[in-house]
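Here is one chain, start to finish.
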Amino acid sequence: MVWKKIAWTVTATLALTLLVISCGGSNESPADTVLRNAQVMTIDASNSVQQAVAVRGGKIVYVGTNAGATDWVGPNTKVIDLGGRMLMPGFVDAHLHSLSGGRALLMCDLAYAPLSHAQLASQIQTCLDSTAAKEPDGWLEVVNWDRQATSAIDGDPSKALLDGLTTQRPIAVTSSDFHGVLANSRALSLAGITTATPDPTGGKFLRDANGVPTGICEDAAGWQLKAAIPPDTDADLLKQGRAALAAMREQGITTFMDAAAADVHGKTFKALQQSGELTARANFAIALVPEIAAVSPADAIAAAKATTTAIDQGNPMAAPGLRARIVKVFMDGVVNAPADTGALLTPYFTNTGTDAAPNWQPGSNIGTVYYPPEVLKPLMLAAADAGLDFHAHATGERAVRQALDAYENVRNQRPKADFRPAIAHDETVAVTDYPRFAALNVSATMSYQWAQRASYSIGETENHLGPDRFARMEPFGSLHNAGARVISGSDWPIDPFDTFLALKVGVTRSGDPTNPHSPASYDPAFEGKINADPALSRADVLRSITMNAAYQLRLEPYIGSIEVGKFADMIVLDKNFMTVPEEELARNKVLLTMVGGKTVMAIDALSSTVAASQRALNARAVQLSPMGSTGHAVVAGGRPGDGHRSCSAFVPTLDSLRAQWAARQATRPATSN
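Its structure:
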C-alpha cells in the first residue's frame, strides 16, 4: 500500500506539472515583455507561424497563441500589440564592413550615382567648398564613386580632373567597390608615388604612354596611396561605429560579421559596448594579407589567433557582445568590367572588332589568384588547427575552385576537425563545382542584390564574361538546389544599405523599378531578370539571413529563430514578407528592432517602446550622408547609382596588419624562420 501511495503521489504531481506547462507556465514569474497579435515567422525547423512571444531576462520563454501568452502577463509586463504585423528573428548580416560603412556615412558622398566627368568634378568641388576650413593640407576623402558608370559615360578620369578643382588639398576618391582610387597630384606626391614607383604585389598604378601615373590606383596600389592619409583617431572610430550601428538598427540587423577586421574593430566596438551603445552582436573575421601569409602561413595564423583571443568575449550573453573566431582572405579581385581581376578558368573575352561592329573573342587575361594553392592549403590547415573558421572572398570560378580544393584538403587531412568554412560572393562558379559545397559543408555567402540587371552586370561585364558564364552569373539558386547552405551578406558599404531590396532580388533575380536603390528605377534596360538561373523561395531567403547566417557564426544555438530558450533578437516588419505581392518585396521597412529583449529601435506607432535612455544613446550617432542607413540620396544632376560590386577592404586594417608584421619581423632573432 505504501508503494501504491507513493506512485499515486508521483503521478499526480507529474500530471499537475504537465498541466501547468501546457497552460504556458503560469507558475513561472511573469514575462518582461509580451508581443501579441502578430504573424510570428519563427524560422524553426518547420517554419511554423505563431501568434505571440513572451520574453524574460533577454530570452524567449514562450512562443504560441495569444491566449497562451496571457499566462505570462503580470502587473509590470510590457504588452506590445502588433496588430497582425509580421514578427521574425532579427536579420544576421554575415558579410559587411562595419567601420568602412560607418566611415562612408561621415564623408563626401557621391551616392553611387553614375556621373560624367563634369558632374564628378562639380560634386567634389561642392564638398571642398563646404569644408574650406581644411585648406590647404587636410585630405578630402570621397566615397561611393561609381567608377564603372563614369567610365561608360566619359571614360576613366585622371588626376587632371581633380587638379583642375579650386583647392590645394590632397584628394582621394574611392570607387564603391573599394578596388580603385582616383587621386590628384598632391595626393600622389604625399604618398611618394612617381613614375619610378613600382606596382605593388596585388595592385597597379594606371599609367599614360610615358609611364606617368594617371591617378587611378587599383587594389594594393590604392592601399599604398591611402596609407599617406593620417590615421583615424579613436574618436573618429567611435563616430564611425555609432553611425554603422544606427544603420544596422534601422535595417533590422541584430547580428553582423565584419568581413575584414583587425584589432581596431575590437577596440572600437568594445568601447561602444562599455558605454551601452552596442546594439548588435558583433562578430569579426580577421583579415590576412597575401604577402604575409606567403612568408609563413603558421605565423600569419598565429598572429590572427592572438587578435581573435584579444577580442573574443566567449559564449554570448543576452546583451550583445563581441566574438572573433574566423579568418578572412581575398582569393581574387572582381569579375566585373573594366577591372576583370577575378580569377577565371578560361580567359575573359576581348573585343577584336570595333565599337560599331564588335567581335568578342577569348583574350589572354584569366585574372589573378592572390593565395596560390601552395600558400592557401597550409594556411587553412593552420587555421583549422588553431580552432579558427575560414572565410574566403572569391568571385571568379578559378578562385572558387581553388578555395574548394583547399577546403577539401582540410577535410582529408583533418577529418575530425570542427571547421566551418565559407566562400563569399561566388559570382561565377563552374557547374561541376556546385555539388562540392554541400559535399564539403562549405557555406556560400551571397550578396543577392548583385543578381539584378545593372551597369556592373549587363553590358561590358556580360561581354567580358561571355555568354556561358553570364548565363550562370550569381548562381545562388543553383547552389541551393545542389544542396549548399546559402547565406546572406550585404557587403555594405559596397551598395546602398537596403536589405529588403537584396532579399527581393534573392526571390526574383530582378530589381524594383520603384526602389531608388535599384538600377531598374532609372533605366528600363535594367528591368527584368538578369539571367535564367534559379531563384530562392521566400522562406529560403529568410532562412539565409537568419538561421543559415547564424550557423556561419556558430550562433545557431542562441539566435536565428524564435524558439524558447534563444535570445530575444526579433524585428517587426511593416508588411508581411511571406504574403505581399512579389513586386512589393523591396518596399518594406523595419518598425521595431529588439536585441536581447531590449528594444533598440522603433518607429511610427511603435516608437514609444524605445526607452528614453536608449533614445538618448541612439541620438549620439551622426550620419552626414542623406538617407544613410537605407542607401544614399540621388546626387543632383545624376541618377541613382549602383556602383560596381565586390568585396571592400578596410584599408587601415590591412595597413595596420602590414605594420604589425614588419614590427614583429624586425624584433625576431636572426636565426628564426
